[in-house]
Amino acid sequence: MTLALALFTNAWDSPFIVPVAGCFMILGIVVASVISGTRTREMESQERLAAIAKGLPVPPTHAEIAASRELPVGSASRRQANIRLAGLILICSGIGLMLMCALISAILRVPEVLCGSAAGLIPLGIGIGMLLDARIQKRDQEATTAPPATY
Fold first, then answer.
1. Alpha-carbon distance 32 to 50, whole Å?
2. Are residues 63 and 91 in the same domain?
3. What is the pTM of this model?
4. How far apart are alpha carbons 138 and 146 in whole angstroms?
5. How would you write the pLDDT of the chain (151 residues) with one tens digit per residue?
6. Cβ atoms 87, 134 nearer than 8 A
7. Gap between the Cα atoms of 79 and 89, Å rounded
8. What's the burial of 43, exposed, middle or buried (CB within 10 Å: 0-12/13-18/19+)?
9. Same domain, yes or no: 78 and 134
10. N or C, where is the chain less crowded by C-beta within 10 Å?
11. Is residue 28 domain-shared with residue 49, that is, in the same domain?
12. Are residues 85 and 140 in the same domain?
């Protein structure tokens, strides 16, 4: 008994407790999502069966509602604008993170804090990639909508 108690109390001192707890949390969120989705489909099915039993019109499912709606005409330009906006936000947040680390390093006079600036390269790179993607999509869209060349 004392060995089990000693193992249990030493488990909380492990440096791996945070990553393991994070993995369990993610697993719990996924399981809860699956259970919630299953329960939602089950309730929708019961609602449809009750409507059929009463002779009422059957309510449409989410898939039927989505299939009946058509995309607006300007969806490609809206998507490009959203990609461009997200790219700019990521670039600015990456630059801001790098400047914050540089400022903290200058204030505290601890050069090791500058290593945090490397974390700003991640959103910066993703933002640049999104801007490149928006430009490529715009060029492809212009090429498909351009009138054919006459010779």
1. 27
2. no
3. 0.52
4. 12
5. 565 555 566 666 777 788 888 899 999 999 999 999 999 989 989 998 999 999 998 888 777 777 777 645 457 778 888 899 999 999 999 999 999 999 999 999 998 888 889 999 999 999 999 999 999 988 888 888 766 666 6
6. yes
7. 15
8. exposed
9. yes
10. C
11. yes
12. yes
Expressed as residue numbers, the domain containing 53 is 17-69
The two three-digit tokens of residue 69, written as one number: 């709606």
In the chain, how many domains are there? 2
Q: CA 129, CA 126: separation in Å to the nearest integer? A: 5
Contact 98, 127 (CB under 8 A): no
Q: Are residues 80 and 47 in the same domain?
A: no
Q: Give backbone dihedrals phi and psi of 149, rounded to 5 degrees, phi first.
A: -75, 135
Cα 11 to Cα 1, 4, 18, 20, 22: the distances in Å are 15, 11, 11, 11, 15
Nearest to 88 by CA among 77, 96, 100: 96
89 and 137 fall within a common domain? yes
